[in-house]
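cron nightly-structures :: item 1 of 1
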Amino acid sequence: MESRWKNVLLVGGLIVCSFLPLLTAVPSLPWERGLVMIELFTITSLSYPVWLRIVLHILTLVLVFLLVFFGDRLGRLVAVYFGCLFFFFAITQNIAVLPTYGLTILLGNLVLLATLGGFWVWEAYHPQNEYSFKRLPWWRYWPLPFVFLAYWFPYGHDLLPDFNPLLFLTSDFGVTFCATAPLIIALLTWIYPRVDSRLYLVTCFVGALIGVFNILAPFTMPGYTLWMLFLHTPLIFISFYGLLLPRLVKDSAS
């Protein structure tokens, strides 16, 4: 019972953090929040050099494949890597100097992702996950095509479809949370229940929370396309599935 209340307080704290204010050097009005955010995300998404995108694509895949083969021997390294990625996303996606609003900080997202990074660094210090990828019921592999979509993340500067195969090495995967988190959450679902329950909850819940913000984005962020919403379905579906999985596993075992 005590653990359940701790989880409730943790989730409540994450929700509160998500509503922290948007800070801008040039004062912005409350109804301009969507305009500020679309300008912020447009600038930050274009700021990553191609070489960094390629390196993170390859490095992340190599680490995941090695994790599957070597299991817990790489657990600490992978936890540190994922933690560093979340800290990287927190800073590079949510802080930028905008032409219209000057220095801008999306404080809510920054705190959420930094908190998530902290949980993964703690996992490296005090490992609880057991990376033994045993054979699972077929239905638990359904996230695979969505992970593939998130890895490709095919869109152009106009936020419309761009199916260029070069995006398999240069997309937003590895440099942004929304494209990278589906793979990380899927990995956790494939080793569930041999996971740190609190790390699992925080990772899935932050993904679901940011997923909800993207569901609302077509109504709150001018210029946000339905194609971008579609590209966020891996984050939305896999995060909510992760939150439901404990119940699904319990029901299937009964």
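cron nightly-structures :: done
The radius of gyration is 18 Å.
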